[in-house]
Amino acid sequence: MLAYTLLILLAGGLQALAAHVKITWDIGYLNISRDGLSTWQAIGANGQLPIPPIYVTQGDILELTAINHLDKPVTLHTHGLFQRNSSYYDGAGMVTECGIPPGSQFTYIIETRNQSGTHWVHSHYGPEAIDGLRAALVIRDLDPKLLDEYDEDVLLTLEDWGQEPSNAMLERMKTTSLGRHPNYPTVLINGINANLSQPIRFLPGRRYRLRVVSMSFTYWFKVRLPGHAMQVIEADGIHSRPSAVDGLDLCPGQRYSVIITARESLEFNYALNVTFHSNFLARKPGLNPRYHHVPIVYRKDAPVKTFPLIEDHEVKWADEYAMEPQDKQMLLEPVDQHIVLNVKAPNRNTSISAHAYGDYAYAPVPVPPLYTALTTGDMALSPSVYAPQLNAIILKHNHIVELELRNSFAPIMHTYHSHGHAFQVVETGPVNSNSSIPVKRFTGRQPMRRDTITLAAGQYVRVRIKADNPGVWYQHCHQEQHNLSGMAFTFIEAPDVMQQTLRVPQEMLEFCRILGHPTQGNSAGHFGSDMTGIDLPLAINGTANSITGT
After folding, report:
1. pLDDT tens digits, one per residue of 49-58
2. pLDDT tens for residues 3-30?
3. Does this model's pTM top 0.90?
4. DSSP string of 223-290?
5. What is the CA radius of gyration of the chain?
6. Residue 270 CB contacts under 8 Å (≥ 6 apart), including other chains
């Protein structure tokens, strides 16, 4: 159900046009076959899957109402939006809220004054998003210079879709070597089986902004359109200086916009190539990698243009680290706090399936850490009020923080997604100094900002943020089986400022009471460092982490 209300706002004697976009998701279970291969109980909204994309214009206020008809709590996270001054609307279950109880509803208020670009919305409570609760979110730009660069918007969503519900899939993965899936997922393009992809119509000479959203929770996708030039202009909602590429390689959660100018001739149609791939699934012809094609139609009866096959290394893929932001934001410096976190994973000979960025596998606790930060006074600046399994890192207001993530656990690639921030990517290189992998530094210019990156096997990446968004922000691997098994940590950002500026809606606190969770005190609901009642954290062996600076 969609309802749109347009409000006319008067400011400073000038008439300005803004909109309150009201969207309701009536969330419930659906027995459905999205891929035409298997039918199982998925989660949709308003009785449908896929859930239609949400479109708003920069400056609009999105009022997204979730009505929960599941038998468990639900939350909604707007992936890529910073929720400045409203951390409680971030939608991270048992981090910034307890969740919407079954039979209840709640409206998230999403401000878009300072953001635009390509994003998405998904549940952030358990594995609900894997089961279908996800949709693209496009915030149209107001900048006339950017609007002059293209004539039409085209949205391309990419999803992985399992052959069984998420709970069964995740349980099965615990018993397989290195988490390899026993069943290869189906690829969905714009919500349907990729083998049935609907054509995209091109008109000669017209300029198209292709928005590509990886709504995947495990796998990578490559996108190419042979015979056409691509200019990258956006990554993860951050406008970039135009850069020519042959194709895109997206990890779970990433987004790009590229400008594609249609050819002048109607002689041929073309094929947009989409490749599903994973380095942690066994290679199997027809399954990994898997190749799909979206028809690009110039003329209904035209033949499809063919091109010689080329190797991946011959393709100029967009470099997710090395782009430059359009706004030319300079390198954040000097650094006040250095954090080094090592990816940790179970020994393949053990039955433990946990992964970690911190010293412990992340696990939820009775009191969401946002509420701990808001209710423990000066103690909120002390790690002692946050349970060890939160892997809580306290950041001081406006400090420049450099985070180094190190992935020595070959051959598994991981991802890093930051809530509340787009980080500057300042350096990548090998974990092992004897490696032939080159070190790449981006500190001599304006580093690209984004909110989701690949952490390649055997490599490290350094990123920087300015701690200017008081709140509690979940940081995690966006491969959902790793996130759910503990590969996450939390930034407790400026808790002293938080206490003066954030006011959690009373309705959210009432939801916690209904679900049996305290809303005050340390992680256990006590005051001081008494953690009685909390399960012992699961420690993950590995290289020690470090935090220096204050």
Report:
1. 999 999 999 9
2. 333 333 333 332 356 799 999 999 999 9
3. yes
4. EE-TTS-EEEEEETTEEEEEEEESEEEE-TT-EEEEEEEPPS--S-BEEEEEEEE-SSSPPBTTTBSE
5. 23
6. 202, 225, 226, 227, 228, 295, 296, 298, 304, 305
